[in-house]
Every structure is written in C-alpha cells, then in structure tokens.
Amino acid sequence: MTSFEKNNTIHPLMASAESKQGPPGGGGPSAIGGGPMGQRQQGQAAPDLGQKLSKYVLPSRPVTDSDISGIKDMIEAVCAEISASIKSAGQKVDNDAIKSGLLGFQDWLKKQGCVSQASTRYAIESTDKYPAEIFETFPGTVAFDVAFKQAGNAKKLYRLLLFVTTVDLFSFGSLEENRTTAGIPVPKNWPQNPWSYWTDRP
Predict the structure, then answer these.
(1) What is the dihedral of CA 96, 100, 105, 106, to 10 degrees?
(2) How does pLDDT run across 150-201, given as a tens digit for each residue?
C-alpha cells in the first residue's frame, strides 16, 4: 500500500490517476488490464506504454518541497504501471523487457512540466551491459539525476533511485535531494541482507 492509499486519502497529484491505478507491483488481474479474459486479449492491440503512462501527470508549474511527497507517490504508481504492462503483455522478463520499461519511464519523466532535466549514468539503451551495470547490486538499481523547476527559475537537483528485478520488475526506491556527488542515498527499506532478497522470497 502506498502512502496516498492509506486511510482512503488520495494525494492531490494522484487525483487524475487514482481511479485507474492498481496496487504497486502489478496487483491482481484488474491491475494489469487483463482481467479474467487476459489470456484471450493478448492478441488484440493494446495501448503502448507511453499512452498508458500519459494519465500520470506531475505539476506543470515549478514545484516546492511540499510537492515531493506527491511526486514520490506518482513515481511509485508509474513503476507499478510499467510492471503491470510488461506482465499483461505476457512478455518474457529478460533484458529487452527491462530496457523497454526503463526507456518508457525515462521518456515519461522527461515529458513532465516540472522537470527541467532528467538523465541517467547507465547505458539503458544497451541491454548487453545490464548484468554489469543494472543488476550488479541486489536488488538491481537504476539512478536518475533529476532537476526540478523551482520558483524564480531556480533548479533543484535530486537523485531518483529505482529498484529493478526480473521478479518484481520496477519499484520506487528513493528520491533525495542531491547535496553531494558521492553516491546515492540508501533507502530506509533497503534489505539488511541484500542476498536474502533473492533467496527468501515469499
């Protein structure tokens, strides 16, 4: 359950998407758009990922610190949508599927009105580099450098961390103000024993 779902309250940034959003991680059949007829519908034309993500919109105005919580919730919802899209398409979860999701996320992020710049140091277009880059840690991580537009034409730099695995696909890791060039802040929910993330799955 994400923070915008608790106590049946919806963060204002999620108002436009909450009626269509399934639970993070893909959830049940309704979350992936297949429903009980999902198997029969695979051969039909489905909306592309960009179209699915277009319903998630960050503010077009400059943002303030108070907007960050809602932005985190929105990114969490986008990750769930990407994962659900991959699962509903019946794709084999390989590096090409991960690449498609990453490129879709990056494209969505760059289109947001409050984002002046978004980039990653990873070669997300080159799937042959994924084992060495993206899946070097457990769970796998991809970091984006994001500059949000602030009042008065100022820019505020953040580091956005996504978790990437072939089991859970895409999930939100952290969004922290980038006050240093040394690494990425470790999220509070990072596994104490990272290897257990793979060996002790429920």
Answers:
(1) 80
(2) 877 778 889 899 999 988 899 999 998 876 544 555 555 655 665 555 555 4
**136 Cβ contact partners less than 8 Å away, ≥ 6 residues apart:** none
DSSP, residue by residue, 82-120? HHHHHHHTT---SHHHHHHHHHHHHHHHHH-TTEEEEEE
The dihedral over CA atoms of 31, 35, 39, 42, expressed in degrees to the nearest 10, equals -60
Nearest-angstrom CA–CA distance, 183 and 145 = 11
Q: State the alpha helices, DSSP H only, in the chain.
A: 38-41, 49-53, 68-88, 95-111, 130-133, 196-199
**Closest among 80, 79, 170, 157 to 115, alpha carbons compared:** 157
pLDDT digits 0-9 by tens, 140-152: 999 999 999 987 7
Among 28, 21, 121, smallest CA distance to 73 is for 21
Q: For residue 102, how many other CB atoms are within 10 A of its CB?
A: 23
